[in-house]
Inverse folding.
């Protein structure tokens, strides 16, 4: 099973950024717990740096993820300093595959958060300890600026939910999704799935799939990444894709 490590930034004596009534260590912990729930629901094994208001040194965060043998490390933060918008970071020197992972994560999060009015500040690189010392692909996410009008977006539960779902969608695109409902009908086209005609067979629970294409009500799921598959109704599968 694919392992994802969630690193809720700061904690304990380290409050992180604060502004407009928001405190970073609290916000990221709330989001980390929600993200954990969504990832587990989607069929991933999840480890967490912290589940309460505890301080960990940066090196210990990386050691915990390395010991867990995670496939992906996601560090959650928000920003301060007068800017506006979402941005993410990978280490300064990484293989091309890590750059592609950043592109996938950035694309999926931006697709969710811009509809809430959050700006896109782009994909960046930095020599952050948690990115440098982790043994797996690692990314640090900055959800917005608490000392700007972004705070009005960050505090909304709807934004937090969509933010988490964007991350889950990215993780599924990278590693594949798991069909967790009992059985789902496979159809030739999206319209067939909606009307229930031209059924081709069934996807069984536990099947690992990749999302090839998506509409409002249907998904094209494939067992071979990048190759078109069969259409299913979103209501018939639980891949975390919403």
């Amino acid at each position: 099973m694919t392992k994802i490590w969630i690193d809720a930034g700061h904690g304990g004596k380290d409050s992180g950024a604060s502004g407009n009534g928001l405190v970073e260590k609290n916000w990221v912990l709330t989001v980390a717990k929600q993200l954990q729930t969504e990832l587990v629901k989607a069929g991933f094994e999840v480890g967490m740096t912290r589940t309460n208001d505890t301080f960990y040194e940066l090196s210990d965060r990386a050691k915990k993820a390395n010991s867990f043998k995670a496939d992906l490390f996601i560090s959650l933060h928000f920003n301060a300093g007068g800017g506006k918008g979402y941005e993410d970071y990978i280490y300064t020197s990484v293989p091309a595959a890590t750059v592609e992972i950043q592109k996938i994560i950035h694309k999926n999060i931006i697709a969710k958060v811009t509809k809430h009015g959050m700006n896109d500040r782009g994909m960046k690189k930095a020599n952050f300890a948690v990115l440098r010392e982790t043994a797996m692909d690692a990314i640090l996410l900055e959800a917005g600026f608490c000392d700007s009008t972004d705070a009005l977006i960050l505090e909304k539960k709807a934004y937090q939910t969509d933010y988490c779902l964007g991350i889950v969608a990215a993780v599924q695109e990278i590693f594949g999704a798991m069909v967790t409902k009992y059985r789902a009908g496979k159809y030739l086209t999206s319209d067939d799935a909606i009307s229930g005609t031209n059924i081709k067979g069934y996807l069984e629970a536990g099947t690992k799939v990749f999302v090839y294409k998506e509409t409002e009500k249907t998904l094209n799921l494939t067992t071979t990444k990048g190759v078109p598959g069969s259409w299913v109704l979103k209501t018939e599968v639980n891949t975390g894709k919403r």
Summary: The helical segments are 24-41, 58-68, 96-113, 129-132, 150-154, 157-175, 190-195. Residues 175-234 form one domain.
